[in-house]
Specification:
The chain has helices spanning 15-26, 41-52, 55-58, 97-114, 127-138, 150-165, 204-215, 217-225, 232-246, 291-310, and strands at residues 7-11, 31-35, 64-67, 78-81, 119-122, 145-147, 172-173, 176-177, 185-186, 192-193, 196-197, 251-260, 266-277, 280-284. It has ten helices and 14 strands. The structure holds 1,4-dihydronicotinamide adenine dinucleotide (NAI) and oxaloacetate ion. It is an enzyme of class 1 (oxidoreductase).
Length: 312
């Protein structure tokens, strides 16, 4: 039996793209091709070579390629889009829409040309609208175009809860629904520490503060960094989703998925609980929501729709 190595292409060799590529390489999830614009070809090749040279020390066997030629991405099993611009202090993610929509259109055309059967994971912001753009441009079935926000937002929530309770992050679970913006919906009712509902462990006032910090988690990092946005936790989130897809794990993870009736919404990409496996989004899980949670989710969806109205 011959073993075929998987191939993962990461579009964009900036902070998130390079960090994602390195984490993918360390986990040996497949060979990694990193693509950036021609003006950035040498730094992209340099990053790929530098990462490959960590292999002997770290004990990974991943082949890494840096390129500006999409022919190198041919027949990728998974493509991760991180290309585009990031926000700076004072900006919202939505301020990036016009520039990044153009980037999504051009990179999607190349991806589809060289890997017509691949699955695409989108990170670029504003990510709900950018995932929709990639879906439309690619013509792919909805289950093969997926956006990342909920794994990251939930990871932030879990970090803050673990800190509050002085417990292992491993024992804290949560679920953040909705768009990747200030009105995302951390579902406290579905969040636990070691199986114990958080509402019985943390006061309402402290939980409200943690929810608020989670909603503004991206901006907190943007303000600290001063010249760009988060990349370690976003890359880790992408790699968890990539692993679920490449290894057909059927993980229950929040994804930005195309809704056609689920949660009473239509024609919109939004963060919801999903089952991720080799077919991409294999199922959307519909949680029972209270009236308040439904109202919050609708508000978040309305914000995403406002950004979608700007799309051309
Ligand atoms: N969805 C999420 O949870 C998160 C989204 N992001 C978003 O990810 C995106 C990337 O962030 P960073 O990596 O920090 O930015 P960065 O500026 O470090 O890197 C972006 C890279 O994209 C490249 N690029 C631009 N146009 C391209 C094209 N047409 N083809 C190929 N490459 C192209 C640039 O040359 C640059 O190397 C931003 O839009 C950011 O807002 C970042 C973190 C979390
Ligand atoms: O805040 C940003 O611009 C980047 C991002 O989406 C995040 O870190 O959540």
């Amino acid at each position: 039996m011959t073993f075929k190595r998987k191939k993962i292409s990461v579009i964009g060799s900036g902070f998130t793209g390079a960090t994602t590529a390195f984490l993918l390489a360390q986990k040996e999830l497949g060979d990694v091709v990193i693509v950036d614009i021609p003006q950035n070809e040498n730094p992209t090749k340099g990053k790929a070579l530098d990462m490959a040279e960590a292999g002997p020390v770290q004990g990974f066997d991943t082949r890494l390629t840096g390129t500006s030629d999409y022919a190198d991405t041919k027949d990728s099993d998974l493509v991760i889009i991180t290309a585009g611009i990031a926000r700076k202090p004072g900006m919202s993610r939505d301020d990036l829409v016009q520039t990044n929509q153009k980037v999504m259109k051009s990179v999607t055309a190349e991806i589809v040309k060289h890997s017509p059967d691949t699955t695409i994971l989108v990170l670029t912001n504003p990510v709900d609208a950018m995932t929709y753009t990639v879906f439309k441009e690619s013509g792919f079935p909805k289950e093969r175009v997926i956006g990342q926000s909920g794994v990251l937002d939930t990871a932030r929530f879990r970090t803050f809860v673990a800190e509050e309770l002085d417990l292992s992050v491993k024992d804290v679970t949560g679920f953040v629904l909705g768009g990747h913006g200030d009105d995302m919906v951390p579902l406290v009712r579905y969040s636990y520490a070691g199986g114990i509902p958080l509402e019985t462990l943390i006061s309402k006032e402290r939980l409200d503060a943690i929810v608020d910090r989670t909603r503004k988690g991206g901006a907190e990092i943007v303000n600290l960094l001063g010249n760009g946005s988060a990349y370690y936790a976003p890359a880790a989130a992408l790699v968890e989703m990539a692993e679920a897809i490449l290894k057909d794990q059927r993980r229950v993870l929040p994804s930005i998925a195309y809704l056609e009736g689920e949660y009473g919404m239509n024609g919109i990409y939004l963060g919801v609980p999903t089952v991720l496996g080799s077919k991409g989004i294999e199922q959307i899980i519909e949680l029972e929501l209270t009236e308040d949670e439904k109202t919050e989710l609708q508000k978040s969806a309305d914000s995403v729709k406002k950004v979608m109205e700007i799309l051309v």
